[in-house]
Design a protein that fits this description.
alpha/beta; globular; 8 strands; TIM Barrel; eight-stranded parallel sheet
């Protein structure tokens, strides 16, 4: 009996994960060899060592290497199929996945063919595995307007095809402002796309304010440095604006020194809506069940609290209302069924 076994078997959703950052070393090496792309290591163990981050710049270096080996539509299909398989093994029923199409556009890829390939694979994997994946094409602040327009155009087309749910904003919020992309987010919202943005990770509360205002963010990726401004925390709680928290990522990239120092529990107790994700699981050597386990170990959460967090992910998702209700009911039912086997007890009542 173990909490880990319970969490591994529990149905879950994931709202903050990057497709390129889900690439395992094995796939990176295989694609690099196929396309004759030079890497700092020529075996899997060497690449795992290289994945041990020194700082955020090193993280970007690794992330861009994963992007650079994606040279043909079938490479994206392989990556997405691998991703869906990993989510299935973790009982992650639904994922909203960041995807930086602008990088691949700059690399000269035929992005219309990439869209065709991803659409085909998303639909195939949903039929085959029952795993639902929807995309969040994201604008990268640091790159500027070079890729913002093509990213928006691609996102709008992907939304029309039913495989994109939001426009995202990523990149270094500490050095690149969010406000220049307000018009892109207005156009996305007018077309029915939701809006999400990374902020409050490597910059302070002002970066969160910037995406809540001009960029109309409905969810904030990370947002952990909101804790530095009690007024902002109160507004997030009052407006029920969700934060997508990635604990291991925050430690690995130096946002917090360790999990004991993480503001997750303080934000939760202040009434801020939170969900749990992995960010870039292959790069941080983690998975979603382990993220839940780490929170339990750091803050003494019982299984009931962790189930509530899983349900919060459903609530914060961009699924249609009827699908949210159905998925929440599945998580409730499975949690109650799994508890005696894995925890040796019944669960206490959990709010719907």
């Amino acid at each position: 009996m173990s909490l880990g076994g319970f969490l591994a078997a529990l149905p879950k959703v994931e709202l903050h994960i990057h497709l390129e950052g889900s690439m395992p070393p094995e796939t990176l090496l295989a694609l690099a060899r196929r396309h004759r792309v030079s890497l700092p290591a020529d075996d899997v163990e060497g690449l795992r060592d290289w994945f041990r981050f020194r700082d955020f710049d090193h993280f970007v270096e690794v992330y861009l290497a994963c992007s650079r080996v994606l040279r043909a539509p079938e490479d994206f299909q392989r990556l997405l199929s691998d991703f869906a398989g990993a989510q299935e093994r973790q009982n992650i029923r639904y994922s909203e996945v960041h995807f930086t199409i602008g990088t691949h556009w700059m690399n000269g890829l035929p992005v219309d063919e990439v869209l065709d390939a991803l659409e085909e694979t998303i639909r195939d994997e949903q039929r085959r595995r029952g795993v639902r994946v929807r995309l969040i094409p994201d604008i990268v602040r640091d790159v500027g307007n070079r890729t913002a327009d093509p990213t928006l155009d691609w996102a709008l087309e992907a939304h029309e095809r039913g495989i994109a749910v939001a426009l995202g904003l990523t990149g270094r919020e500490a050095v690149s402002p969010s406000e220049p992309y307000a018009d892109h987010f207005a156009a996305a919202a007018a077309a029915g796309l939701h809006c999400v943005a990374h902020a409050g990770e490597h910059a302070g509360p002002a970066s969160v304010e910037a995406v809540l205002g001009p960029c109309r963010a409905e969810r904030v990726g990370h947002g952990v440095r909101s804790i530095e401004d009690s007024g902002l925390v109160a507004r997030l709680a009052e407006r029920q604006t969700p934060l997508e928290i990635c604990p291991t990522s925050n430690v690995a990239l130096g946002v917090v020194p360790d999990l004991a120092s993480h503001p997750f529990d303080r934000l939760r107790r202040a009434g801020v809506e939170l969900s749990v994700s992995t960010d870039d699981p292959s790069l941080f050597d983690t998975d979603l069940a382990r993220e839940y386990e780490k929170l339990a170990a750091s803050f003494g959460y019982e299984a009931e609290t962790l189930v509530e967090l899983a349900l919060a992910g459903v609530r914060h998702s961009f699924l249609p209302a009827a699908e949210k209700t159905q998925l929440a009911a599945e998580i409730h039912a499975e949690a109650e069924r799994l508890a005696p086997r894995h925890l040796g007890r019944e669960l206490q009542p959990i709010p719907a």
